[in-house]
């Protein structure tokens, strides 16, 4: 087992890894930018090292500074979290060259599956259906136009690296394609250090289903069911649940086998997520793999009674899959709301600033993953998520009721949050019936604004 691990990330995921390390008896090292000096992950780590100014490009994306911090702290391994450098094959290689274990897949596996175009080719090779699209990186707008006109509008432009909706644009005609192509490249370069993009046919209002994969270095590859991530705004997930209300056991087996087969093909190790689009007819299409831990991993943990971050660390240190992961058995239903510092009454404008009061819900089946607290100042430089509210119930109905109760208890003063909007979504008839899709959030915003208006006396806190 490792003696000391550096967490090359910030916020709630850094804190999540620190807690896993503590439970495994491993010392933790946090890195932070000047803007994160007061973040909870910095305070709870055994050691903390500043790596630069607030912009991620000058701190959390600086491989040399992170490696220098790792060498100064004399760590055995680095956990990349999600986002930032978590799917950067070069970073994994640098760690290896410095004799520091990268807690994640190999650089080769990241290139094979983290590169979305290479992953598509692998899917085709093993017989998993994919959406029509470009054969590789699209070099320029001329080529982009040619591809789009061939497969037909609408199309979606996607960054080769990273995820979280960044570097992604939908185009419905030539002018929007040209604009979206350049915007996606710039955004991808800024977020991931790689401006490469590719193009796929855009499927209107599908369901976004992802399968959790876990694989060790001894040849065992398993999946821990699926998560439904269809509730999105501008390709950013808002609410997720596990299992999906739309996937029956036969479809689950079929999609699960496809997911495992993909990972076996590239010799994948550690955790990862295979993502699909699913239509109402039960047809699914591979879209990408995230070669890292996912933001929404807690709902899988709660349903299966496992700890995926601990599993990552154990796998990286050479252990076989733990019994609960090797023989997974779902027990509950779980729902997650991503609580963002955004104003839902003002086009979801970011709402950084000082949190005057932070009171979280509690009770049976309630989990909060967060790095903030009363008196904390949310910086304007990073993702707006300040907390994840996860609830678990014996049935989907009980989980929904618990989430509604918890959203009513969750109080954040000083900044605006997405809590009231998520309450509207959870209470909607479509969500209650499990009949929603990736375009549902926009439908709510466009046609049900009267249901989503500030209550008398002003917006909810």
Describe the structure.
With 461 residues, this protein is an alpha+beta fold. The chain folds into 3 domains: 4-103, Rossmann fold (3-Layer(aba) Sandwich); 132-201, Dna Ligase, domain 1, CATH 3.30.1490.20; 207-451, D-amino Acid Aminotransferase, Chain A, domain 1. It is built from 16 helices and 22 strands. The protein has helices spanning 11-23, 40-44, 63-73, 89-97, 107-114, 116-125, 141-151, 174-192, 249-265, 297-304, 308-316, 323-326, 396-409, 419-427, 429-433, 440-447; strands at residues 4-7, 27-33, 47-52, 77-79, 101-102, 155-159, 168-171, 197-201, 207-215, 221-233, 236-242, 270-278, 284-290, 333-340, 342-343, 349-350, 353-354, 357-359, 366-370, 377-378, 385-393, 411-413. An 8-stranded antiparallel beta sheet has the order 13-12-9-10-11-14-21-19, sandwiched between helices. A 5-stranded parallel beta sheet has the order 3-2-1-4-5. Strands 7-6-8 form a 3-stranded antiparallel beta sheet, with helices on one face. A hairpin with a 5-residue loop joins strand 12 and strand 13 (284-290). Helix 5 (107-114) crosses helix 6 (116-125), helix 7 (141-151) crosses helix 8 (174-192) and helix 13 packs antiparallel against helix 14 (419-427). The radius of gyration is 21 Å and the shape is globular. The model is unreliable at 455-461 (pLDDT under 50).
Features:
461 residues; alpha+beta; Dna Ligase, domain 1; D-amino Acid Aminotransferase, Chain A, domain 1; 3 domains; globular; disordered C terminus
């Amino acid at each position: 087992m490792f003696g000391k691990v550096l967490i090359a990330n910030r916020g709630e995921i850094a804190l999540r890894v620190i807690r896993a390390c503590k439970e495994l008896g491993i010392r933790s090292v946090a890195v932070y930018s000047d803007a994160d000096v007061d973040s909870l992950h910095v305070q709870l780590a055994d050691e903390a090292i500043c790596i630069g100014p607030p912009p991620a490009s000058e701190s959390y994306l600086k491989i040399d500074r992170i490696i220098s911090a790792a060498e100064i702290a004399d760590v055995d391994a680095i956990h990349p979290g999600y986002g930032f450098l978590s799917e950067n094959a070069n970073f994994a290689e640098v760690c290896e060259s410095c004799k520091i274990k990268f807690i994640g897949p190999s650089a080769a596996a990241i290139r094979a599956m983290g590169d979305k175009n290479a992953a598509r080719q692998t899917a085709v090779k093993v017989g998993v259906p994919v959406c029509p699209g470009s054969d590789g990186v699209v070099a320029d707008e001329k080529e982009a136009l040619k591809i789009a006109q061939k497969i037909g509008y609408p199309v979606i432009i996607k960054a080769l690296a990273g995820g979280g909706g960044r570097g992604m644009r939908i185009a419905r005609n030539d002018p929007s394609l040209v604009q979206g192509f350049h915007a996606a490249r710039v955004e991808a370069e800024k977020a991931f250090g790689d401006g490469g993009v590719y193009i796929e046919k855009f499927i209107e209002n599908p369901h976004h289903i992802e399968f959790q994969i876990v694989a060790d270095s001894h040849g065992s590859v398993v999946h821990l069911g699926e998560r439904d991530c269809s509730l999105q705004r501008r390709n950013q997930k808002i609410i997720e649940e596990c299992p999906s209300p739309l996937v029956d056991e036969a479809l689950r087996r079929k999609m699960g086998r496809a997911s495992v087969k993909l990972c076996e093909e590239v010799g994948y190790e550690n955790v990862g997520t295979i993502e699909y689009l699913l239509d109402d007819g039960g047809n699914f299409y591979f879209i990408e793999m995230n070669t890292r831990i996912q933001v929404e991993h807690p709902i899988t943990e709660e349903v299966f009674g496992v700890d995926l971050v601990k599993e990552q660390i154990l796998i990286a240190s050479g252990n076989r899959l733990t019994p609960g992961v090797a023989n997974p058995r779902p027990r509950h239903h779980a729902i997650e709301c991503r609580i963002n510092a955004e104003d839902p009454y003002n086009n979801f404008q970011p709402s950084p600033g000082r949190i005057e009061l932070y009171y979280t819900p509690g009770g049976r089946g309630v989990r909060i993953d967060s790095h903030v607290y009363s008196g904390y100042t949310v910086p304007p430089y990073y993702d707006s998520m300040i907390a994840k509210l996860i609830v678990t119930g014996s049935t989907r109905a009980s989980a929904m009721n618990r989430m509604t109760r918890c959203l009513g208890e969750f109080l954040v003063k000083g900044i605006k949050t997405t809590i009231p909007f998520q309450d509207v979504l959870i209470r909607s008839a479509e969500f209650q019936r499990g009949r929603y899709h990736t375009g549902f959030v926009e439908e709510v915003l466009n046609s049900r604004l009267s249901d989503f208006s500030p209550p008398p006396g002003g917006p909810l806190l």
